[in-house]
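Co-fold these.
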Amino acid sequence: MTSVPELPEVETIRRQLEPRLVGRAIVDAGSHPSPKFTPAIELVGATFEAVRRRGKFLLLGVDDDRELVIHLGMTGRLRPGADFDDPYLRAWWRLDDGATIGFSDVRRFGRIRVAYNHRYDGTLAVLGPEPFDDSFTPDHLYRSLRSSSRHLKTQLLSQRPVAGVGNIYADEACFRAGIHPATRRISRPRATALHEAIVHVLRQGVDNGGTTLRDYLDADGRSGANQHHLHCYGRYGEPCVDCGTVLRRSTIDGRTTTWCPTCQTR
DNA sequence: CATGTCGCCTGCGAGC
DNA sequence: TGCTCGCAGGCGACAT
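Predicted complex below.
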């Protein structure tokens, strides 16, 4: 069992960093030599003006429309108080109030870059709507999912139908909606149910301060509480909370997936 | 353009 | 108990 920072975990960190960063200038910075992390030092001298989030990306904006774009990858942690004895410290920033921020990442799947004038590339450039925005509607979800015949789970992980869903919340949302994750064509009523489920599981994740399984800790080094509310993810071999059927596990397009063979239908 | 495959990383659990 | 081996997984590069 592992865990990955998804939207609720990144939002939890965003809320904790915001009051510590806004209005603070960067007086020094350092990074691991990998080009995945060296952009961390590019904004020395600039002042943070906003701490935003898009999907699983943190956008730390400074006063001249540049942004530090940070993705936590699999094992990334971003927190106040850089630990310089941590062998996995990949980047750090020192602020004009003397505080430090550290980015620690065991597996180095995380990534830091600088964006200019809100121009993005890669996944960030094609990200779907934020799940809590008015633009994320059942109709949008239906049309987005119908535009591709890939497995439902794969589409959700692509970040295009909606931003911020990873393996945990994809499984949880499919379970709540009663839809098999390998479905390729979804009906309008089921898209509406899935829309409700996505918003619900992500909102619950945020309200619980994120999910802690093994790797994830929030900006203050605390764990979240959402792992106590998971109905599906990581519970293969255990009984379904709704019907008692043993939950099944397989891979869909290479991603481990858990589902209830009774409650979730194609 | 849509889709599919591979590589990046390293700790750790399964199995012997 | 001690060891090896392969899994886990979001994203981006690349091929078709």
